[in-house]
From TrEMBL:
This is Protein AIM7. It holds the Pfam family Cofilin_ADF. It comes from Hanseniaspora osmophila. The keyword Oxidoreductase does not apply. PANTHER family: GLIA MATURATION FACTOR (PTHR11249:SF2), GLIAL FACTOR NATURATION FACTOR (PTHR11249). Residues 4-157 form the ADF-H domain. It comes from the Eukaryota. Belongs to the actin-binding proteins ADF family. GMF subfamily.
Amino acid sequence: MSTSLYQISPETKTRINKFRTATSRAEKLEHLVIKIQPKPSYEIVVDDQEDGEDGDDDDDDWGVEVNELKDLPEALPDNLPRFVLLAYPLVTKDGLKKTPLVLLYWKPPTVVSQEWKMVYAGCLEMVRSFTNPNKFLEVNNGLEDEDDVQDLKEQIEA
Protein backbone atom coordinates (compact mmCIF):
# COMPACT_ATOMS: atom_id res chain seq x y z
CA MET A 1 0.00 0.00 0.00
CA SER A 2 1.28 3.42 -0.82
CA THR A 3 0.48 6.64 0.97
CA SER A 4 -1.20 7.97 -2.19
CA LEU A 5 -4.04 5.59 -1.36
CA TYR A 6 -4.92 7.78 1.64
CA GLN A 7 -6.19 11.35 1.67
CA ILE A 8 -6.75 13.92 4.37
CA SER A 9 -9.65 16.15 3.36
CA PRO A 10 -9.35 19.95 3.69
CA GLU A 11 -12.07 19.82 6.39
CA THR A 12 -10.08 17.28 8.42
CA LYS A 13 -6.89 19.32 8.02
CA THR A 14 -8.77 22.37 9.28
CA ARG A 15 -10.15 20.46 12.28
CA ILE A 16 -6.72 19.11 13.22
CA ASN A 17 -5.11 22.54 12.88
CA LYS A 18 -7.92 24.10 14.91
CA PHE A 19 -7.40 21.48 17.62
CA ARG A 20 -3.66 22.16 17.69
CA THR A 21 -4.25 25.89 18.08
CA ALA A 22 -7.16 25.70 20.53
CA THR A 23 -5.37 23.30 22.86
CA SER A 24 -1.85 24.73 22.81
CA ARG A 25 -2.33 26.04 26.35
CA ALA A 26 -5.06 23.69 27.53
CA GLU A 27 -5.54 23.32 31.27
CA LYS A 28 -7.16 19.89 30.98
CA LEU A 29 -6.66 16.82 28.84
CA GLU A 30 -8.18 17.24 25.36
CA HIS A 31 -8.37 14.71 22.56
CA LEU A 32 -9.28 14.33 18.92
CA VAL A 33 -9.99 10.87 17.49
CA ILE A 34 -8.94 10.27 13.90
CA LYS A 35 -10.15 7.32 11.84
CA ILE A 36 -9.93 6.01 8.30
CA GLN A 37 -13.07 5.60 6.23
CA PRO A 38 -13.62 2.14 4.71
CA LYS A 39 -12.78 1.49 1.09
CA PRO A 40 -13.02 2.70 -1.55
CA SER A 41 -12.13 6.15 -0.17
CA TYR A 42 -9.69 5.41 2.69
CA GLU A 43 -10.15 9.05 3.62
CA ILE A 44 -8.62 10.12 6.94
CA VAL A 45 -11.30 11.92 8.96
CA VAL A 46 -12.08 13.11 12.47
CA ASP A 47 -14.25 10.52 14.24
CA ASP A 48 -17.35 12.42 15.34
CA GLN A 49 -18.91 9.35 16.94
CA GLU A 50 -20.70 11.33 19.63
CA ASP A 51 -21.64 14.70 18.27
CA GLY A 52 -22.15 14.78 14.52
CA GLU A 53 -21.75 18.56 14.71
CA ASP A 54 -20.35 20.62 11.90
CA GLY A 55 -17.20 21.73 13.70
CA ASP A 56 -18.23 25.11 15.13
CA ASP A 57 -16.25 26.75 17.93
CA ASP A 58 -17.82 24.70 20.74
CA ASP A 59 -15.19 22.80 22.73
CA ASP A 60 -17.46 19.75 22.84
CA ASP A 61 -16.72 19.13 19.14
CA TRP A 62 -13.74 17.01 20.14
CA GLY A 63 -15.95 14.01 21.00
CA VAL A 64 -16.51 12.09 24.24
CA GLU A 65 -15.26 13.93 27.32
CA VAL A 66 -12.01 12.49 28.58
CA ASN A 67 -10.81 14.02 31.84
CA GLU A 68 -8.01 11.54 32.51
CA LEU A 69 -6.11 8.94 30.52
CA LYS A 70 -8.11 6.18 32.22
CA ASP A 71 -11.24 7.59 30.52
CA LEU A 72 -9.73 7.31 27.03
CA PRO A 73 -10.98 3.78 26.23
CA GLU A 74 -14.56 5.05 26.58
CA ALA A 75 -13.98 7.37 23.61
CA LEU A 76 -12.46 4.65 21.44
CA PRO A 77 -13.74 1.46 19.82
CA ASP A 78 -12.48 -1.68 21.50
CA ASN A 79 -12.09 -3.65 18.27
CA LEU A 80 -10.73 -1.13 15.73
CA PRO A 81 -7.52 0.88 15.51
CA ARG A 82 -7.60 4.68 15.74
CA PHE A 83 -5.24 7.62 15.94
CA VAL A 84 -5.74 9.89 18.93
CA LEU A 85 -4.31 13.38 19.12
CA LEU A 86 -3.93 14.39 22.77
CA ALA A 87 -3.24 17.80 24.25
CA TYR A 88 -1.67 16.65 27.50
CA PRO A 89 -1.10 19.43 30.05
CA LEU A 90 1.70 18.80 32.52
CA VAL A 91 4.13 20.57 34.83
CA THR A 92 7.81 19.92 34.16
CA LYS A 93 10.37 19.18 36.87
CA ASP A 94 11.34 22.86 36.59
CA GLY A 95 7.78 23.90 37.44
CA LEU A 96 6.91 25.04 33.91
CA LYS A 97 3.44 24.36 32.50
CA LYS A 98 3.39 22.84 29.03
CA THR A 99 0.83 21.12 26.87
CA PRO A 100 2.63 18.79 24.48
CA LEU A 101 0.74 17.31 21.57
CA VAL A 102 0.85 13.50 21.70
CA LEU A 103 -0.22 11.20 18.88
CA LEU A 104 -1.39 7.79 20.05
CA TYR A 105 -1.73 4.89 17.66
CA TRP A 106 -4.54 2.94 19.35
CA LYS A 107 -4.22 -0.79 18.57
CA PRO A 108 -6.27 -2.66 21.16
CA PRO A 109 -5.52 -6.38 21.41
CA THR A 110 -9.08 -7.21 20.30
CA VAL A 111 -8.50 -5.96 16.73
CA VAL A 112 -8.91 -9.10 14.65
CA SER A 113 -9.13 -7.62 11.17
CA GLN A 114 -5.76 -7.86 9.46
CA GLU A 115 -7.09 -5.51 6.79
CA TRP A 116 -7.66 -2.69 9.30
CA LYS A 117 -4.28 -3.29 10.92
CA MET A 118 -2.64 -2.90 7.50
CA VAL A 119 -4.73 0.14 6.54
CA TYR A 120 -3.77 2.03 9.72
CA ALA A 121 -0.13 0.95 9.56
CA GLY A 122 -0.04 2.08 5.91
CA CYS A 123 -1.01 5.67 6.65
CA LEU A 124 0.72 6.03 10.03
CA GLU A 125 3.57 8.16 8.68
CA MET A 126 1.19 10.40 6.76
CA VAL A 127 -0.89 11.11 9.88
CA ARG A 128 2.22 11.49 12.02
CA SER A 129 3.75 13.91 9.55
CA PHE A 130 0.62 16.03 9.23
CA THR A 131 -0.18 16.23 12.95
CA ASN A 132 3.48 16.87 13.85
CA PRO A 133 3.17 15.73 17.48
CA ASN A 134 5.73 16.38 20.20
CA LYS A 135 5.54 12.67 21.02
CA PHE A 136 4.27 9.53 19.28
CA LEU A 137 3.26 6.38 21.17
CA GLU A 138 1.66 3.08 20.23
CA VAL A 139 -0.96 1.72 22.62
CA ASN A 140 -1.28 -2.05 22.26
CA ASN A 141 -3.45 -2.70 25.29
CA GLY A 142 -6.98 -1.65 26.12
CA LEU A 143 -5.87 0.54 29.05
CA GLU A 144 -8.18 -1.52 31.25
CA ASP A 145 -5.54 -2.10 33.90
CA GLU A 146 -4.36 0.79 36.11
CA ASP A 147 -0.76 -0.30 35.51
CA ASP A 148 -1.27 0.12 31.75
CA VAL A 149 -2.67 3.63 32.27
CA GLN A 150 0.23 4.50 34.59
CA ASP A 151 2.77 3.19 32.05
CA LEU A 152 1.22 5.33 29.32
CA LYS A 153 1.23 8.39 31.58
CA GLU A 154 4.92 7.85 32.36
CA GLN A 155 5.73 7.48 28.65
CA ILE A 156 3.94 10.74 27.84
CA GLU A 157 5.60 12.64 30.67
CA ALA A 158 9.11 11.26 29.99
